[in-house]
Design brief:
The chain has 21 helices and 25 strands. The chain is α/β, with parallel strands linked by helices. The radius of gyration is 25 Å and the shape is globular. It binds fructose -6-phosphate.
Amino acid sequence: MCGIFGYVGDKDVCKVLYQGLKSLEYRGYDSAGIAVIGDSLSFVKDAGTVDQVLSSIKLPSKRAGIAHTRWATHGKPNQINSHPHFDENMKVGVTHNGIIENYKELKKDLMAKGHTFKSQTDTEVIPHLIEDYLKLGNFEAFKKAVSMIKGSYAIVAIIDGSEKIYFARKFSPLVLGANDEYFVASDVTAFLRWTNQAIFIEDGEVGYIQSKKYYIEKGGVEVKRKPTTIEWSFEEAAKDGFDHFMLKEIFEQPTTIRNTLVSKKLEEFANHLNTLDKLVLTSAGTSYHAANAFKYASNIPIDVIVASEFTSLYRGGEILAISQSGETADTMTAVRYAKSLGSKVDALVNVVGSTLTRIADKTIYTHAGPEIGVAASKTFTAQLAALYAVDAHMKGNPLPQIDVKPGLLHSKEIKKLATKLSGAKSMFYIGRGPNYVSAMEGALKIKEISYIHAEGYQGGELKHGPLALIEKGVPVVAICPSDKYREKMIGNIEEVKTRDAYIIGIGQEDDNELKSLSDTFFGMPKTDYPTVTYAVPLQLLAYHTAVIMGRNPDKPRNLAKSVTVE
Ligand code: F6R
């Protein structure tokens, strides 16, 4: 996820771009840049925050420019990889949000035609492609380039000698701001201080803004669309109208999982793992749960060591460290220890260019975008998606088909249940096989943001101690898809039911037996990946319970997003 912004009008272009970009910084904050149309195209860009890179710049601009705040996906955060990107003749400047899946093929073709590239980004193919077709005319060249791109994108482009800003959208958000002058941005926060009149661009649409005019078309036919009045405050708009970043991030999961699954690097990495006879996974918190899910799925022998215990338990073997931030001190200590013993270290990380990626021998990425809420949500399911994709490649199976939308549809009913849970002193989450991982993650989520004590247990372990704690009304979340563990799980659920626990069953929608055992039941479609799809109702349960109890789920007490102390 990145923030893109463009402006055409009479105001000081650099100042408008800087102010708008500041409002988009929550979408990415590892590098920033702007390019403006003057006598020629000029630009400033670098690694760093919007303030570090752009607060005091002045460029010779004539009424139009584009800007970008980056969250790296291809290529480290540095000056060259920052946006905007240009063709070698400085005719076309482009900023882009999304992932171009066929950029390697496009780059090869363009290089064969004599184009030279500077960066490691997928985006850089776009200005070269547009430049290659400029003889068709600016807008036709832009459309031709867009038609050749596969993947997800919101693109804005400027072309030397024109005062138009061209745009295109597919799967990445883009909206125009309209009053007497025009804006184009990843979201309305960028221009809300100047106008609340927004025209939302739909997938497959292309167009341009210019002084006092905008034009949109789809499939060669002009689209007329009236502006919508935005009633949101600036704060609400940054959260896309959601009450908290965590809820917004939960709802982003259909996109973040898709973006992660299509990464080409996963297959390469799977081929590498197939050459090993053992792998040791290390990570912390939610990332540790993702590691455990991989252990259940994989055919190769895997040890999972929680990062804070690594130096006591590690006995050798190649490492895969999993971390959203790539900065967690426990994980870094584990990795440095393994390196000091001469072991190879691989990493699965969300933050490009983070410390872990610099130490690792090989890095693969989740493509979940920045996660602002302290509790991991979309980055957990992205880790699972990446690991299941690696597993599928290792076994020669097709890529996982994962649909998390059904879980999102339960949000309203879950909110009702949350009112009931808000009085609970303690809760249990139970599951068997990989669903035990879901139990651990569900329990972690509710304890960290609602502060209700919760434990995740293997269904079979209850009778070895914790059953003593089950009494009338204690909430037990039973994660019980219709898989090979179901029958035994039903037995475990009966054990707690007999002790009058309050059963919250999550299982396959046609499982009438589970439904009748449950006090509240959430039905899910049949799935081969319940750890991913069932994560969503568990996240929503934690979220709604926290909110009803008056907690701020985005900033739980005593916790930080990046834990840089051991
Ligand atoms: C829980 C949570 C933490 C992190 C843990 C590791 O919601 O966010 O448990 O998962 O601190 O962080 P990373 O993945 O950044 O290494």
